[in-house]
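To illustrate the input format used throughout this study, we show a single complete record. The first block contains the structure-token representation of the backbone; no residue identities are included at this stage. The design step must infer an amino acid for every position from geometry alone.
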């Protein structure tokens, strides 16, 4: 590993800063990475969708593309791992490398590790280091110890970004629809893509998902690669090693010159000593004379000198104490491997007795107990208060609940307070409504008009509405009418009735008169 060729600043970073470093690395080489990604994944996308459409299971293609993500992630790691050391591969090299590079490391990620939430960072361990078995497990544990939480959060963020981007592509088409045609266009889009989509609509949804993945996935893997690099810098001290290399490179000329000067001085002093000591040659030959058996000469005896003879009274025999100190040093936790011990403990241990001083007054103990109860159960109390408020105000806050559950509503729920529901409708609806308005019974007039509108709707459609049908259900049934005038008139009647019955805001008399005029006008679907 050539640390001198690194193209990034070597320093330890916070986890999220390291993730941002990886994203910046992908952004720098985005053209090469995304080009290789598109050229690799697009043919596979077309093939999978063609097979899935022939089988009639278009969703299977989307699932297969999602499952093969670790296979495509090799593109990002191949470019990023080389670009960080200054060796940027070309597009052709990247495409050719996908035939053989990293297959052994990516195979487990296509099988039992596919749902692992830490794929962004741990995929680098398998593809770049190639460790297996117990060595890999230990390596993953050490690397994930400092960046586990950001790694998992990256997966959560990446999934949400892909989903929002895919939905945004669909919604983008609706932004170009004029406002007056937006409800019908949204209904058509819902019917074509969700309700009963044809095969081309399903392929279009898969294509939107592929675009979202092609945009988000490289940055997701790049962020994980940044976490991986940061952990390796922290554990292996790359910045310290590179600093020492730079110091050595800066001082090497000076050290070489100093070494030559010292050698020259040493050679000169050795020559001077040899000239002043002629007996050196005789002294040097003493071992040879002794080797030839000249044992009678006392000058040739070999004398052995011990440490005690050299230091005299200052000698201290502390060899055993030194060995014991070394053993104790190696037994410390800083040098020996750490072990992890799992102990079973009760989930709810017995509470220890807390003695209360006798001089604490009773009111203080009661206040402390009440405060402790609020602190321990504050969340449940807040939840209960919110639940009670929602129940009491569900008609105003959650009006859509009535659209989800069909239930029989009483006369008071329908709002016919002044006119009985069982009373038959008059022959002349506009005259009866105007009479009630003249008596200042606006609520009863709108209730009568609403009942008449519902009955006319039922007659025009030729089917009876379900018992207890809500206003929203009646509006949904009115969309089946072929006459847009009466559908719009019925919607106005319902909105006016809801404003008077639930919001206590009756419409102006002019609006009611306009509705009565439209009511008397002939329509295309007026029942006989």
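Output of the design step:
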């Amino acid at each position: 590993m050539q640390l001198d060729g690194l193209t990034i600043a070597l320093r330890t970073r916070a986890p999220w800063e390291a993730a941002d470093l990886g994203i910046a690395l992908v952004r720098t080489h985005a053209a090469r990475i995304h080009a290789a990604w598109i050229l690799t994944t697009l043919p596979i996308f077309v093939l999978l969708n063609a097979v899935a459409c022939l089988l009639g299971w278009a969703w299977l293609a989307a699932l297969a593309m999602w499952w093969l993500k670790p296979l495509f992630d090799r593109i990002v790691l191949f470019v990023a791992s080389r670009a960080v050391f200054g060796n940027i591969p070309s597009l052709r090299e990247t495409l050719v490398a996908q035939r053989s590079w990293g297959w052994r490391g990516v195979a487990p990620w296509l099988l039992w590790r596919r749902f692992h939430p830490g794929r962004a960072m741990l995929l680098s361990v398998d593809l770049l280091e190639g460790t297996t078995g117990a060595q890999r497990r230990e390596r993953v544990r050490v690397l994930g110890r400092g960046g586990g939480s950001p790694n998992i959060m990256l997966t959560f963020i990446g999934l949400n970004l892909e989903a929002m981007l895919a939905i945004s592509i669909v919604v983008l088409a609706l932004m170009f629809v004029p406002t007056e045609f937006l409800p019908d266009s949204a209904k058509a889009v819902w019917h074509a893509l969700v309700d009963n989509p044809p095969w081309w609509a399903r392929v279009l949804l898969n294509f939107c998902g592929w675009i979202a993945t092609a945009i988000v996935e490289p940055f997701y893997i790049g962020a994980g690669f940044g976490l991986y690099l940061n952990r390796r810098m922290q554990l292996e001290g790359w910045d310290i090693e590179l600093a020492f290399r730079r110091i050595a490179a800066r001082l090497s000329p000076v050290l070489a010159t100093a070494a030559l000067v010292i050698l020259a001085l040493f050679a000169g002093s050795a020559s001077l000593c040899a000239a002043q000591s002629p007996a050196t040659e005789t002294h040097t030959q003493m071992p040879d004379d002794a080797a030839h058996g000249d044992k009678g000469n006392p000058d040739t005896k070999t004398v052995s000198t011990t440490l005690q003879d050299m230091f005299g009274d200052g000698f201290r025999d502390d060899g055993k104490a030194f060995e014991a100190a070394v053993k104790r040093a190696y037994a410390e936790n800083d040098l020996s491997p750490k072990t992890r011990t799992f102990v079973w403990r009760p989930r709810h241990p017995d509470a220890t007795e807390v003695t209360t001083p006798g001089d604490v007054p009773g009111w203080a103990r009661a206040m402390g107990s009440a405060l402790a109860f609020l602190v321990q159960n504050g969340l449940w109390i807040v939840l209960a208060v919110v639940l009670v408020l929602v129940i009491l105000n569900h008609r105003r806050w959650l009006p859509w609940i009535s659209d989800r559950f069909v239930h029989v509503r009483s006369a008071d729920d329908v709002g016919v307070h002044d006119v009985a529901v069982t009373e038959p409708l008059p022959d002349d609806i506009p005259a009866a409504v105007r009479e009630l308005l003249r008596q200042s019974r606006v609520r009863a007039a709108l209730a009568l008009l609403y009942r008449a509108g519902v009955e006319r709707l039922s007659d025009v459609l030729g089917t009876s509405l379900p018992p207890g049908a809500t206003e929203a259900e009646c509006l949904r049934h009115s969309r089946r009418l072929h006459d847009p005038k009466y559908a719009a008139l019925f919607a106005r009647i319902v909105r006016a009735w809801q404003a008077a019955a639930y919001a206590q805001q009756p419409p102006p008399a002019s609006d009611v008169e306009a509705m009565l005029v439209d009511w008397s006008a002939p329509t295309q679907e007026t029942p006989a």
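Structural context for interpreting the output: The CA atoms of residues 121 and 225 lie 6 Å apart. The longest helix spans residues 133-174.
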